[in-house]
Protein: Transcriptional regulator, LuxR family
Amino acid sequence: MTIKTILIADDHPLFSGAIGGILKDLLPDHQILSAPDVDSLQKVAERETELSLLLLDLNMPGAVGFSALSWFVGNFPATPVIMISANGHSTTVRKALDFGAAAFIEKSADKATIEQCVLAVLHGETGLHPNLTISSRPTQLETIDTAAAIASLTPQQLKVASMLVEGLLNKQIAYELNVKEATIKAHMTEIMRKLGVFSRTQAVLALSQLAAEQPQEHAP
Structure:
């Protein structure tokens, strides 16, 4: 008998452990796995054949905004994603849903809300977030096209793209990934082709469209 699996992708062990505890009580027949960064997320996703659900932190190491969500949804469309974040900005929530997340949970949510959302998503419901309204600004088509292009990147190309946005040069990226600079140049050519751009600057601007809106600070 194949064991169904839920993956929690979050780099904060305390939060990941707390969510894992909730899920173990709620779904005792599921295996709960964790991944602290995008590289680990990709490896688990490609290894596990019965992945029922992904809970994905917005600010994952190795991701540019929603790039990890876009990549996962494009490569594993049958597995629903619940995006989790402390950033509940309405535009952030809207982007998450437009990029393919089934639901959005803020990290301040209580146990009952988390359980309700997880069960609803596992039963096929989508577009779930209590504060999302029809007035939330829709994501621009150009940005959605960029998200679709991200989904076509290989895991290694996604790493290169993330480092590109961080401002690293080809030589630096090659050093970090322990490959030849020529390999990075080849990846860059493919990344720009898939994004439909013709320079590193244009690639960075396109990828930056996947950044999340930051919540406004409240005046004291």
